[in-house]
Give the backbone structure.
Amino acid sequence: MSAKPRPHSRDNATARWPSGASAPATALFFTVTSPTTATVTAPTGPLGIIDVSVTTPGGTSTTNANDHYTYTVPGAPTVTGTSPSSGFAGYSVVVTGTTFTGASAVHFGATAATFTVNTDTGVTATAPAGTGTVDVTVTTSGGGSTVGSADQFTYLPGSPPPTQIATYRGDLARTGY
């Protein structure tokens, strides 16, 4: 149940979750798409099945078997690759896999990394300090990824190579080098 968020609809309808549920009683965003259909962005809610009702100036819908919405826990993420698969601390590493949306942690071995979720199938992480070969894992509300050969990152010995810096020669007021 999702759509482009709009705080109000044209028919002044209100989509409601049952009171007493841990979800807000009123959905935050919904769009009335026809006289018989509304698209709702579901707020965070408890696991399980709930009844959804709609209130318009004409009254509130009655609950029945057709108004159920099910909250589920997403599956655990999987890591299918790292790129590059070897490097130094501080390297930017693209982690590929599935179910990364909402990731709460990325680890290189036992060490937490800073990261950005790019898509449901891609995370960019900064390799923390480490040595040897480690498993890169991703954690979401669905659990942690299992380890395997595809998730490995190998720290290279020694120091990272220097980065190239552009240098100017001669008089900076002149054009060219």
